[in-house]
Design goal:
By secondary structure, this protein is mostly helical. It has 21 helices and seven strands.
Length: 455
């Protein structure tokens, strides 16, 4: 383990977790998203002018449309790509989380539950880090801070730490493996970074947490866990969800966007003081997050793809998904596990204009969920071969380039048809995908894919 001196030498003035310097109030962000959702003919409207002319309708404190970056930060409006400087708001959309929170009463318990969930889902390296100062940081900050503070209390009886210690040894960490290191540095009363004043100037993480949750007691000098929420949060959230595994699943922009933009059902409220009944609930067995589909559960995948409303996505979110190593690759010696992101399937179907890519004339029915022609997304190179494809081509095959839109009959045929039927379908779809494969460096032949299907 490195020493505190080693860590301090590695820090720079921009090493701290960075979010925007704008207003970080969730309620103000929701009002901004509400106004954004009502813009008519959004693709052709001057959003800056519209926002300036209409912001007072919801009592939004600023007339600058750039405030929209904050509801993007909270997952109420899409942002594609996450880390690009600036924003082309005309191409973005309100998210499924926004649709849900719009359906509940403002400031109600249901509202505060979703507000809490969105704050818990914030991630460093996050949407606002346009300078890429935190490019390799992969931390959910509320959870990380809590784990350090709880660890200090359980291990050493330390109830609170200084804000300077927090900025120096917690808010400069890059991944969950550094929790124990942060605890030990703080316990040893290691020196404060020379850049701590720069850290405080650059970061608005604490402001965001303090404004939108009551999990911590924060003043100008110290931070501690709020005892009213401590056991409630630990028993009903920390013990319930395996976030050390989850954070590995959020490396790709498109995976984080699907996680952020869809209600996960955490059902935790860090705003209203928990009742005695809520304090008594304990779920010791970790519960998997429902965003991603594990193993060959094709039925669940198809249902999740169909349930995504196209008005809640920006299809550009799928760009570059092939570049990031699949999480399962590093764990194949344990079991052949892989994960797929339903958002990529929906993007592929949307790009195909809800038509069957085997034959655009194939008829289907209207989906009761999306009110569009019902189609199913299919990975032409099966995702059970993620490891082999990554090892050989350095391509993550859970990507738009490897997904095709099929009518239900064609989808069943490629799985259950005769060898002759399968051969013709795979050949036709390969010819459609081959240029896309070439563009991402996936130099795979038709014969290679036929062998995967044992055809």
């Amino acid at each position: 383990m490195r020493t505190a001196t080693d860590k301090l030498k590695q820090l720079k003035s921009n090493s701290v977790w960075v979010f925007t310097k704008q207003e970080t109030d969730f309620d103000e962000s929701y009002k901004s998203a509400l106004l954004f959702s009502e813009i008519p003919n959004k693709a052709n409207v001057n959003i800056e002018t519209y926002f300036s002319d209409n912001h007072s309708r919801y009592g939004i404190q600023t007339d600058r449309h750039r405030i929209l970056v904050i509801p993007q930060f909270f997952g109420l409006i899409t942002k594609t790509p996450f880390y690009a400087k600036g924003a082309f708001y005309n191409a973005e959309n309100p998210t499924a989380v926004f649709d849900y929170i719009k359906s509940v009463a403002p400031q109600s318990k249901e509202y505060n539950i979703i507000k809490t969930e969105q704050v818990l889902k914030l991630k460093i390296h996050a949407i606002i880090d346009t300078a890429n100062n935190n490019e390799n940081y992969n931390i959910l900050p509320v959870i990380f801070i809590y784990k350090v503070l709880r660890g200090l209390r359980e291990r050493y009886g330390i109830q609170q730490i200084t804000i300077d210690q927090l900025y120096t040894y917690v808010m400069t960490c890059t991944n969950y493996s550094e929790v124990d290191e942060a605890i030990e540095f703080i316990h040893s009363n290691a020196p404060i970074s020379e850049y701590v004043s720069d850290f405080k100037s650059r970061s608005r993480v604490l402001t965001c947490i303090k404004k939108n949750t009551n999990l911590f007691n924060i003043d100008s000098q110290n931070i501690s866990i709020n005892p009213k929420f401590d056991d409630y949060f630990y028993n009903n959230f920390i013990l319930k969800y395996d976030f050390e595994e989850l954070h590995e699943q959020l490396l790709r922009d498109v995976d984080y966007s699907y996680f952020l933009y869809n209600v996960q059902g955490f059902n935790i409220n860090l705003i209203d003081e928990p009742t005695a009944e809520e304090l008594a609930v304990v779920t010791p067995k970790p519960t998997p997050i429902s965003s991603f589909i594990e193993d060959e559960d094709e039925t669940t995948y198809i249902e999740k793809v169909d349930s995504i409303n196209e008005t809640n996505i920006n299809e550009d979110a799928g760009e570059g998904a092939y570049k990031i190593e699949p999480v399962a690759v590093s764990r194949f010696d344990v079991g052949r596990r892989f994960r797929t992101n339903p958002l990529l399937g929906k993007i592929a179907i949307k790009k195909a204009y809800y038509s069957c890519e085997k034959n655009y004339n194939h008829e289907t029915f209207i989906s009761k969920k999306t009110k569009q022609k019902y189609m199913e997304a299919h990975h032409l190179i099966p995702v059970c071969f993620q490891k082999e494809m990554w090892d050989k081509y350095q391509v993550n095959i859970d990507c738009v380039e490897n997904l095709v839109s099929l009518c239900p009959t064609c989808h069943k045929a490629i799985h259950y048809g005769t060898k002759e039927v399968q051969y013709q379908m795979i050949k036709d779809l390969y010819n459609r995908c081959a240029p896309k494969y070439k563009a991402i460096g996936l130099d795979i032949s038709l014969d290679d894919i036929l062998k995967l299907y044992k055809v």
